[in-house]
Amino acid sequence: MTDRLKTCAQSVSTVIKKCAYRLYLFLIPQKKDPLRQILLKCGMLLCLAALIVSLIYLFFFSVESASQRKVVDHSRKIWHDQTVKTEEKFAAMIAENPDFRGWITVSGTKIDNPFYQCNDDDFYLTHNQLKEKSKYGAVFLSCLDTIDQERSDKNLVIYGHDTTDGSMFGTLHYLRRLGFYQQNPVINLSTRYEDVIYKIYAIMVLNATTEDDNGRIYNITTDYFSTAEAFDAWLAEARQRSLINTTVDVVPEDEILSLVTCCYDFENARLVVMARRVRDGEDPTVDTASARENKSARFPKKWYEVKKKEYPYAAEGISVQDVPSASSELSGSSEPVGEQPPGPAENGSNQAPSAEAASGSTGSSEEPNGFAP
Hints:
By secondary structure, the chain is α+β, with helices and mostly antiparallel strands. The longest helix has 45 residues, at 35-79. Mean pLDDT is 82; it is low at 318-329 and 331-368. The chain contains 8 helices and 10 strands. The strands form 2 sheets. It has an 8-stranded mixed β-sheet. Strands 7-10 form a two-stranded antiparallel ribbon. The protein has one domain: Sortase, Chain: A.
């Protein structure tokens, strides 16, 4: 029996050596090979190297994705535990990270996440909710906004990466589709002080730099209007830019929530979803039956250039609502990037906003535009 095993092992070894040698001759250029065959072999080696690198990348990507999902799932388990009081949920989340500010959910998407806030908007671009280095970052509230027991800013901005696996704000682009919006027209936001519903009234593609739209950036964070006409003009432009004509009305007294992520209509583009808070005594449901696709939606100039179409707003000057800014990228060209159907400090709580992250370059140098990070 032992002799048979030895013979079998030797046979297998011989076969492996022969296969390896044939593979060597097949892939490795030899002196006697004609030039055409040498070039072919070099091409095959390059393809093989690319395949190996891709497999290594996918392995590490999968590992990091699973790790990130585990972190968020742990938070979801705490947050959605019906046997735990809200105060205890907040206590557990704050114990994990004192930067915790609340929870955001958009039905129909994978957006069901805690959101955080620190003094440096760059921090949560590159760190997860445990303050660990991560390409996924975390969902975070602008460092310029305030949510506390006394008051909440009238116009809140929340950011999240557009990711391949749909985490963070990787499924926000679902709202670009009319049918999806009609089924999911609201955003739920919970803070330590209240649970709030926001009705989505605009979904738009915007630019983050002035050169991409004829010197313009539509200012999503405006919360003060000197006249009713100024507010009407601001709202009218949001309607004009929205990919969907919604039936949600907006008045100057409303509180606004904007969700911002990268999109890839052109380089450095942003997808922005704007919603207004449900008013006291108002029915939180939205009549979406009359919502329609906006076939003449306005895009930044860069969009028309990429599509090789004429830019129809070239004659316009910079209006009071157009805020020039130098904005940094939310995720840029680095992975992770959008799911298909979209040197920071180690401790962000002690960092002042950088010039790029603060998005503070405005016409009056006082008002942020909402596109940084």
